[in-house]
Specification:
Layout lengths: L7 H13 L4 E7 L5 H6 L3 E4 L10 H11 L7 E3 L2 H10 L31 E5 L9 H4 L6 E4 L2 H9 L8 E3 L14 H10 L7 E6 L9 H9 L7 E6 L5 H10 L6 E5 L3 H7 L2 E4 L8 H8 L4 E4 L4 H4 L6 E4 L3 H12 L2 H18 L2 H16 L10 E4 L1
Parallel strand pairs: 1-2, 1-13, 3-4, 4-5, 5-6, 7-8, 7-10, 8-9, 10-11, 11-12
Helix pairs in contact: 3-4, 7-10, 8-13, 11-14
Amino acid sequence: MLEAAWGGLSRYVIDLANAMAPLGVESIVAADDGEWRAKFDAANLEFIQVPLLRERLLLRDSRRTLLSALAGRRIDLVHTHYRKATVLARRLKLRGSPDFPEPTSSTSPVATRQVPRTAGRVPIVYTVHLSHMNMSGLRKWFTDFGDYTHIASEDARDWCVNVGKVAGERIRFVPHGIDVERYPIADAGMKRDARRSLGLSDEDLVAVFVGRLEYPKNEHWLLDLAAASAGQLPRLKVLLAGDGPNAAMLRDRIDAENLHDRVRLLGEIDPVPLYHAADALLLPSIREGFSLVCAEAMSCGLPVLRTRTTGSRETIIENATGRTTDIDHDAFVQGAIAFLSDRARLAEMGATAAAHVRAHLTHSMQVTRTLQLYREISGCALEKNGAGSARLG
């Protein structure tokens, strides 16, 4: 159950649901309509449209729509991805089979201590995609972290315990992962061809950004970097892939400051050739949920410079897979100049980054551990070709 614009969250839901289907997990997506709706339709997922974004606290219409659509259907678990969606899930008061077993003790790496639940009540697991949320005023009282809280980063765990006041035994840690076959390491020929396709030379120093052009990505810091580093990094090319509300402002700045030779806006493109052409990925965000883009680039053999946001502890081994900086403009710009100044070292870190992703952050690992999490929470034996479990993604 979600309410986001198209981005990492919606992609997470689609990729996970498609991977779970052959394992016997039936997924139902409940969400408001939006620019991303076509992505779900193309994925052939059952979609229930609810007016979640337009309703206030009582969520009467969303509740009525869902209860009607789910009448008579077995639901084993509700998986939510926003605080408002979790409140709605709680108001549904869904109950499963009266003979549902309680979760049993597990040796799964996602399991800690079991949390008893009311017999027959469908449990709710809430994924904290973007920690460090506003918890002031009424937001604190209307935040529901579910019966279990799934986090993808240890930074998110710290925030949930210390700020969200979530009991530690209710938290389950499953890092995100990416399909490394979709993001292969570029050999010399692939890198050369990728550069030619983008009009780049072998001598160019290429730094890339991939993501939405909007808050909280801080993509305008990369234009500042391009302007500030002309003396130290004369061959630097900063390529930004993505679209969003800040695109027009960035174009105006490039024109006004005559940065055309150093900065290019590419729009929404397949990022793989971009990763293969680049020397490094730069991620100057104020906040991140984990950053699938970071893992993608690393899988392709790129080192990453990113601010110390959620997910950096899982992806960045300092001076081995990349580097981190404080969430500070000057610290990031100066850190980027130093980071990009040694291309041989960038290549070494890129090789380590690719190995790190393959050892710790693959999508198959994420799917396996999420399935274990679903088994633990629902008490259902979800085996391939066995009884399916429906969830709201």
